[in-house]
């Protein structure tokens, strides 16, 4: 009893794990508590009141034993008994109020940090997300935010509580009997030594169990999602995966038993050390009572104070590491908030209005550069699935993460001095071998990236001078890998325009040749599409994606026309929908279909990041260059097929 602070030795007693707490970091942490200063002040007042109440009960017991009972004073006995009943009742009310204030502060800090983090992440460029693990972002938004909240609502409050309680209890004990007080304090070093020695072993076992749990959970995550489950069934690996899971679950079980036994031994030793202190106090106190130095009631009061004193002192002993461990979570949160933005909006950026859609690339070059100052630092997290390197084999990777870039380029420069003009309402088709830079070019139009050199103009205005939201409103993009949220078809379509009416939604779906399919479903537009639209076929997902773009009604359409994996009927429906989508819009299309190329106003043949040929189909075919080669190898099978 009374050793609530000792558990921190288990997880944070290793000197090499103590993070550095700077004055600047502390001031920034305290700024997050400013909006809640009155709640914190109320908590401190309640702490003082609660501490005062804990000091009263032992004094009442002392008075009962030394005065009231020997004097046979019934009235005083009744009053003392009522006081002993009232004190825990009042203490309970105070505890509820303190908990209410504590929760409002803690949850408020979590809210503030999460919103600040999420809002900043929404402004980060695509480059950041291609080089950052989703698991790490989730850890920053969840684990580190909760750890930061713990620093304000629990750690700091706990330190103040322990300081007040230690000071008050020692003051009262010293007024009662200074010799017993010294004996009580002398035993504390034994407690700290025992806690650090066995606590270190318990901490290591606990972390090992967390890592084993992470491996087991990662295995479940890999094999029980729809893709993993399908693969297991197709290869008949259910027995293998069951055996693998059994082995990992057994390790978790064995480590759990080891942790339970070690924990029991730990608390037995702590209990024995505290028993030594209690025995010394009662032994010396009993001797002094026999000698007539003080009364029996004083010993009883000391016994009550002893547990409070040991609990408070042990909490203070672990406070430096506990505080630093909590505050480092703030450091990880601030790291995200302080990340510089790759794509920034200029002060006073113009809102695009009455856009015609003329798009011009002027000597544009681009490199996929990775700047460490724009990325998160590596953090080893015990018990996190994203730290498991090889989920099935369990092997560790010797390479550092930054040595394996997320995007592999066959050349240093992805785009090399690209220049062209897309007239308003015209269709520009991009053709070229895989990896030539076509997708990179399309990513520059909505400012997912900014050019390394050169500039891109929309109606004569540099894209970097336009407000980001207004630029996004003018551009509709359909990527090769379509993405749908795990929600209804209606919600996915309304993502393009939140205020669209049902009639407008249905009109867009009809234009994309998907309305009849949707209405044929049991729940119609309220059908849940599943994770990433997994319940739908490739053609159905693409048509819903097209309907979403139609509903947005952008001035410029950027499209990766990937239809090679679709059946003939789906491909025909999509091609018919594309004609409607592109009508009257400036369209930049990565072309995979001969029909699109033939209808293009301008064809750009791209190779190794450069526009090597440009012109119409007839002009480029006559040149006998890259386009002619692509035509013969990729599009020849469509030559005799009608484009309708």
How does this model look, in words?
- This protein is an alpha/beta fold and 644 residues long.
- It folds into 3 domains: 16-176 and 322-342, ABC transporter transmembrane region fold, CATH 1.20.1560.10; 178-293; 425-447 and 462-638, Rossmann fold (3-Layer(aba) Sandwich).
- It contains 21 helices and 10 strands.
- It has helices at residues 8-11, 23-33, 37-71, 74-122, 126-130, 134-176, 178-186, 188-224, 226-234, 238-290, 296-337, 438-444, 468-474, 489-494, 502-511, 515-519, 538-552, 568-582, 594-599, 617-623, 626-635, and strands at 359-366, 415-422, 427-431, 453-458, 461-462, 475-478, 556-560, 586-590, 602-607, 610-615.
- It has a 6-stranded mixed β-sheet with strand order 6-7-8-3-9-10, with helices on both faces. Strands 2-1-4-5 form a 4-stranded antiparallel β-sheet, covered by helices on one side.
- The longest helix has 53 residues, at 238-290.
- The model is unreliable at 1-17, 398-409 and 640-644 (pLDDT under 50).
